[in-house]
Amino acid sequence: MYSQQVSLLDGSVAGWRGVPILPCSKIPVSATGTTSIIAMRTGADDQGVIGLHQTGIPDEYEPSLSVRFMGISEQAIISYLVMAYYSVAVLTSDALGILEDVEVGRW
Q1: N or C: which end of the chain has fewer CB within 10 A?
Q2: 6 and 15 in contact (C-beta within 8 Å)?
Q3: Pairing of the two strands 86-90 and 34-40
Q4: Structural contact between residues 35 and 103, judged by C-beta atoms closer than 8 angstroms
Q5: Distance (Å, whole) CA 40 – CA 19
Q6: What are the percentages of helix, strand and coil residues in the chain, rounded to 5?
Q7: What are residue 94's phi and psi, to 5 degrees?
Q8: Beta 65-72 vs 3-8: how paired, if at all?
Q9: What is each CA distance from 64 to 44, 69, 76, in whole angstroms?
C-alpha cells in the first residue's frame, strides 16, 4: 500500500508515492469506488505543464487578476467583480496521462 499523507502548502492531503492526490467534484466516483485520475508532470525544467498569466487585462490589479468596482448599494455595501485569467501550456505530449478504473474507496 502506497497511500500516505503528503505536505501541500500549509496542510496535508492524501498522496500516492509522495505525489498529492487532489479531489475534484467534476470527476465522478462510481458506486464501486473507482474513478479516473489525471496525472500531470509540472514545471518547465521537467518539460511538463506550466501556468500562463494574462497581462494587460482591463482593471488589472496584478497579472491575471482583474478587480472592477461595481458600485455601492443603498445599504452601503461595496461590490467588486473579481476575475482571474489563467491558462496552461503542455510542453510535451507525455506530460499528461490518465489512470482509469482507479480504486479510491479504501485508504
Answers
A1: N
A2: yes
A3: unpaired
A4: no
A5: 10
A6: 5, 55, 45
A7: -95, 10
A8: unpaired
A9: 19, 17, 29
Q: Residue 23 corresponds to which cell in the numbers above? A: 479531489
Q: How far apart are CA 91 and CA 42, in angstroms?
A: 9
78: its cell numbers:
461595496
Per-residue pLDDT of the chain (107 residues; tens, 9 = 90+): 456 788 877 888 877 777 777 777 777 888 888 888 888 888 899 899 998 888 888 899 988 899 999 999 999 999 999 999 888 899 998 999 888 988 876 55
- Going by C-alpha positions, the residue among 27, 40, 49, 48 that lies closest to residue 102 is 27
What is the length of the chain? Answer: 107
Query: Looking only at Cα atoms, what is the longest distance across the chain?
Result: 59
Q: Which three cell numbers stand for residue 49?
A: 505543464
Find cell 470527476 and name the residue. 27
Question: Residues 3, 20: contact at Cβ < 8 Å?
Answer: no
